[in-house]
Amino acid sequence: MAREISPKDTTRASAYELWMKAPNPMVTFFKTLDVTNLIRVSKHKHLKFNMLIDYCIGKAAVDVKEFFILPVGEKLIQYDAIAVNTIVKNNSGEVSSCDILFSDDLEVFMKEYMKYTTQVAETAQDRDLSGDCMVIGTSAIVDTELDGVVGMNSGIFNNPFLFWGRYRRKGFRFYLPISFQFHHTQMDGAHAGRFLENLQKVINCMK
Question: What is the reported pTM?
Answer without folding.
Answer: 0.96
